[in-house]
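DM from R.C. (forwarded with permission)

"hey, sorry to bug you on a friday — could you get me a structure for this? deadline for the figure draft is monday and I only need the backbone to look sensible"
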Amino acid sequence: MNYIKIAEAAEKWGVTSRMVRYYCMNDRIPGAIADGDGWLIPEDAAKPERKKYEATPREKEKAPYLANKLQKEKKKRRYHGLYDYTQENFTYSNNRLASNRLMRKQVVEIMKTGKVTTYSEPVKIDDLIEITNHVICINHILETVMQPITQTYIKKLHKLLLYGTVYDRTHMGAVGSYRTKLARLGAAKTPAPREINSQLAKLIGEYESKHEYGFADVVEFHALFEAIKPFEDGNGRVGRLLLFKECLRREIVPFFIDDKRRSAYLKGLRLWKMDREPLLTVCYQAQERYAKEIESQKLLEQHYYRLVRIGFFKGEHIPKREEIE
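My reply, with the result:
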């Protein structure tokens, strides 16, 4: 059998070398062999197809399935597996990307007890407020997941996120309103304040008028939204919240970008109009992580209710069938 190297496979399939390496490390290419720091790939190997989450017929009865599951778990008195995982990890990751200095265990503590333990460095009040506000934003998304994206919806999400912060108190009327000053996104220029409304209207109109939606469509909307930078602060977090909402709405496995992927994510946003692959790669890797968590939570949930049925939790209310499903 003849083999080719990573660079040759990347050129052949039209993807980055990093993506080919990712395929190899995750056993996506049959017959691929590790060779020192690289990989040898069968010459006739086909490009791996993008994995898609397939809901069962029962799950599709109440689409979008994941949105319904998260809504139900939020309301349950006991088991909140995937909902808790989503709230804790998305809230931590999204705010960490925006330079929130709270540690993950502090974020979890705030959600579970309403308190926070301080360690060596002082805690900024805004860091605490933005964490609790982000939880409210996710709950708002779950309640309104099927609503179309509008400028009113975007402004409300921004207001929920930054309400009560120092920025809100010192910039009266700025929260929930578009910026009034020129801004830059790295080296790139952003639209002038007077152009924000029309550019967002065009972006939303083109997006909402599509008949079919895939993974690349929601990522593209996110990249173009970030390029407009409609607000003075909070653009990244609002954009990623919208991305999460649209994944749920379009029955695409959602995802959130963690701090480890920060550099690659920001680079992908900058390069989007020239090369889409870097940002799609980062988002796809994050999506696979969430997909694995969905499967793990299914097993944990089954185990939990099995323990409940055999009376492991003495004095506990045994859930009815409809409560479990």
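R.C.: lifesaver. The chain has 15 helices and five strands.
me: no worries. Residues 3-42 form one domain.
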